[in-house]
């Protein structure tokens, strides 16, 4: 007996349609509440808990990262440039100060002449530790011109020599110590003596060996047994006061240490002696 196929086909079509609809239902239905546990409140009431806020992860794209790196490099280059500029400004400032000091040293105004010497009270100079190297002699003396003035700076321990308005030489000196300071003021050269001996100071020398026993002896002081007194040598002496102060060649320790005279380097004292006439103005300043 044959069975008609049309009803079976309609049932199969309905079955396929219902199956597709059932598969779509879970995505449309609301999520079921969680099952109650022992920790839930009595009565089985379920309360929805607020969800924790989760910030999305921030990511930087390569282009932005390259821009940030470029900006950091520019900032670093700018800072290095500012540091180089600051260092250059400091170097220029120091060079300018040094040039100003040298100009003031070389361009010291020539002392004005005066008929009456103006002598002020001498200032003591505290002894300092001797430097390892004394300042060098700077000399551009012109043999055909006479020296017109001498300026002695006690604090600088330097002598400035002028030929007319031109600064012709600068030399280190040694002025009087705190006990015997060099007098300050304006003087003139009143005597020249190539082989002068001090009339006040000298040393005690051993009679046998010739060795100096005491280098700070005073004329009239009784010498120790076995020694004798010898007056201090003052080669190329240029006297500026009647009581024995003058310029002469001698030992330069690098600080004020004499008995009032102005010691010069021996070679320079010999050269200076030839060009300085009697009556040359001498100024002793601080």
Detailed description of the structure:
By secondary structure, the protein is of the alpha+beta class. It has a domain at 119-285: L,D-transpeptidase catalytic domain-like. The protein contains three helices and twelve strands; from the N terminus they run ααβββββββββββαβ. It has helices at residues 6-28, 62-106, 266-275, and strands at 119-120, 138-139, 149-153, 158-163, 166-172, 184-188, 191-206, 212-218, 227-239, 246-249, 262-264, 281-285. A seven-stranded mixed β-sheet has the order 1-6-12-3-4-5-2, with no helix packed on it. It has a five-stranded mixed β-sheet with strand order 8-7-9-10-11, with helices on one face. The termini are far apart. Mean pLDDT is 76; it is low at 26-30 and 35-57.
Quickly list its features.
single chain, 286 residues, seven-stranded mixed β-sheet, five-stranded mixed β-sheet, 12 strands, 27% helix, 26% strand
Brief write-up:
The protein is of the alpha+beta class.
Secondary structure elements and pairings:
Layout: H1 6-28, H2 62-106, E1 119-120, E2 138-139, E3 149-153, E4 158-163, E5 166-172, E6 184-188, E7 191-206, E8 212-218, E9 227-239, E10 246-249, E11 262-264, H3 266-275, E12 281-285
Parallel strand pairs: 3-12, 10-11
Antiparallel strand pairs: 1-6, 2-5, 3-4, 4-5, 6-12, 7-8, 7-9, 9-10
- What's the helical proportion of residues? 25-40%
CATH class of one domain: Mainly Beta
Strand order of the largest sheet: 1-6-12-3-4-5-2
Mean pLDDT: 76
List SSEs in N-to-C order.
Answer: HHEEEEEEEEEEEHE
Tell how many strands the DSSP assignment holds: 12
Note the total helix count. 3
**Major sheet:** 7 strands, mixed
């Amino acid at each position: 007996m044959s069975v008609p196929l049309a009803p079976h086909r309609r049932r199969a079509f309905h079955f396929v349609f219902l199956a597709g609809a059932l598969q779509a239902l879970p995505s449309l239905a609301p999520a079921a509440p969680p099952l109650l546990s022992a920790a839930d409140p009595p009565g089985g009431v379920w309360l929805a808990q607020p969800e924790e806020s989760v910030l999305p992860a921030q990511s930087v794209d390569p282009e932005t990262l390259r821009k940030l790196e470029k900006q950091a490099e520019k900032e670093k280059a700018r800072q290095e440039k500012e540091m180089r500029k600051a260092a250059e400004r400091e170097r220029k400032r120091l060079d300018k100060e040094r040039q100003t000091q040298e100009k003031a040293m070389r361009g010291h105004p020539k002392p004005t002449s005066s008929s009456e010497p103006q002598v002020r009270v001498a200032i003591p100079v505290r002894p300092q530790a001797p430097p390892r190297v004394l300042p060098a002699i700077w000399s551009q003396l012109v043999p055909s011109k006479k020296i017109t003035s001498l300026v002695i700076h006690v604090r600088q321990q330097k002598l400035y020599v002028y030929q007319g308005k031109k600064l012709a030489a600068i030399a280190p000196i040694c002025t009087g110590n705190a006990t015997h300071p060099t007098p300050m003021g304006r003087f003139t050269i009143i005597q020249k003596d190539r082989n002068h001996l001090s009339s006040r100071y000298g040393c005690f020398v051993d009679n046998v060996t010739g060795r100096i026993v005491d280098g700070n002896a005073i004329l009239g002081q009784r010498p120790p047994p076995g020694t004798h007194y010898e007056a201090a040598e003052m080669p190329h002496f240029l006297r500026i006061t009647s009581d024995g102060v003058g310029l002469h060649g001698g030992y330069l320790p690098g600080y004020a240490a004499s008995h009032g005279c102005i010691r010069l380097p021996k070679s320079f004292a010999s050269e200076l002696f030839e060009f300085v006439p009697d009556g040359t103005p001498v100024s002793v300043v601080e």
